[in-house]
């Protein structure tokens, strides 16, 4: 069965979630494009979007229409060609509305898992909990045909383990989209030794159609993205423990968040990133990796305390940031959680100025992440930035260079441990999935 055939009937489990909703939009577009081809005008296309909450599915309907409208508005030239035979569509607005309507028309919404019957492709994007996933998989195996192919958005659970527990016989592949799937180009593709060739080929072809950058990762818990991110975060927390005696928890967290964002020129600080992902999600992934890798070092007392206090981070349905390590006002850090006092310490200019003075200045010709994104001199500027740090005798420069060295060590070990096939694959994940300006395996340190 070709990919075109399989895209006639597709299901997304966990469709109303953060990842599932983005996957749903991507698939709706591709299925609508197929339906609009003259040879397919009489074929029926079904995108079955399944979740446990009717309220969440209502939100998904609104989200999909809004996102499909954005996509259509950016693609009017392509859409004009697709609707060339429709003489009734003249204005751009008419064509845009037609595509939004055609894309929405393929979608069916339900809380009933039985709706998956007949699906040729099933995408799973539920909570990162292996017991829940396996329970759902066993139900899917009973409901679906023996030639149905399954793609899981898991970011940490080994595919061979899930496939064996579900009894899929190699019909499961790891297809890890990055958040948000509509925007992020990266998809980590994880195959087990038993993964059937047909599924590998379908996954590769689908990636091309969705215009994604596919990076292979080996079937080791955490894969490349979380294999690096978890250890990167744990390193920052170990430095916080060293700094808290002198600067207390708020000061130590502020320092390491600033070091990772400004001194390492990343899109956001490490603690902002953990908040964005969700502190409880971070803890869950650590547990999965610790269990499957047998590495007891993949644990954080600080993370455990935050979860116990129900300070979890994450996002609200509208995409705004929930409070976590940092307190947010209009999505900007305004405070830092003091785990000892169990309350937020509010950042004021005087306190910030005092901490920044102890950290020391940035290199004289510092250029922030956003300004460097499109710079044609990016590599030259980055080289000069880190060379300047090496010549500075400040706490900030010392912490930044230590952090830079540690991120490289983490990445190199992922290659040594055969999690990644190459340094290029690791760098591709961090630059495309995490929007770093440079890969962790570099010559800056």
Describe the protein's topology.
Elements: H1 3-6, E1 9-13, H2 18-35, E2 46-50, H3 54-73, H4 76-82, H5 92-105, E3 107-110, E4 121-124, H6 130-143, E5 149-152, H7 159-166, E6 172-177, E7 186-190, H8 197-209, E8 213-217, H9 225-263, H10 270-277, H11 279-293, H12 301-308, E9 326-329, E10 332-338, E11 343-346, H13 349-359, H14 369-372, H15 378-391, H16 395-416, H17 423-433
Parallel strand pairs: 1-2, 1-4, 2-3, 4-5, 5-6, 7-8
Antiparallel strand pairs: 6-7, 9-10, 10-11
Helix pairs in contact: 2-3, 2-5, 3-5, 9-10, 9-16, 11-12
How many E-type strands?
Answer: 11
What general form does the structure show? globular
Structural class: alpha/beta
Number of domains: 2
Could you state the order of secondary-structure elements as H and E? HEHEHHHEEHEHEEHEHHHHEEEHHHHH
CATH topology of the largest domain: Rossmann fold
* Mean pLDDT over the full residue set: 96
Q: How many whole angstroms does the radius of gyration measure?
A: 23 Å
CATH class bucket of the largest domain: Alpha Beta
Q: Please state the second-level CATH architecture of the largest domain.
A: 3-Layer(aba) Sandwich
Q: Which stretches are poorly predicted, pLDDT < 50 over at least 5 residues?
A: none
Largest sheet features: 8 strands, mixed
Q: Hey, roughly how much beta strand do the residues contain? A: 5-15%
Helix content: 40-55%
**Considering the protein shown, what is the CATH homologous superfamily of the largest domain?**
NAD(P)-binding Rossmann-like Domain
